[in-house]
TrEMBL record:
Highest taxon, organism lineage: Bacteria
Spans through the membrane: none
Pfam families registered for this protein in UniProt: HTH_IclR
Upper taxonomic lineage: Bacteria, Bacillati, Bacillota, Bacilli, Bacillales
Residues covered by the HTH iclR-type domain: 9-71
Record-given protein name: HTH iclR-type domain-containing protein
Species, as recorded: Paenibacillus cisolokensis
Gene3D superfamilies on file: Winged helix-like DNA-binding domain superfamily/Winged helix DNA-binding domain (1.10.10.10)
Amino acid sequence: MSDKHPRLIQSVQRALDIINCFDSLHVQLSLTEISEKLNLNISTVYGLINTLSAYSYIDKNPDNGKYKLGLEFLLKANLVSQSLDLKEIGHSYLTDLTKKYHETSHLYVYQHEQIFAWTRSNRPTTTSLSVQERGISCRCTPPLPAKYFWRICPKPSCKIS
């Protein structure tokens, strides 16, 4: 088989599809909702969820019977964070920016249409202007006027908080 078209394991794909059903708008989902989203038989989804649950990647909310991502993701996220040199490399640049402009500097990572706060260098006193929409967070600190902020986060549906 060619490297251009690697062989993918269907059961692994389906398990990942289940995990990817969850997002900031769908934090908890019922078995039926997952089954319908993926167009898979409910018994197939049930078996995959049981396997993911056994490894703590999916948890069931006992109050409403819906499923949510498990705590194992936090453990793995910490491993990812520890393995990236980006925080160390970026922090020195943020520190320089903070010293030069006397403002808090933030480092964000953009991946899969989401922005993740990675690290920051604070000025002595900080206030911030922030916007959040569907898991995307945009932030700036004064004295940057709001009119410039919209150039950073140009979505018309963003709300200032």
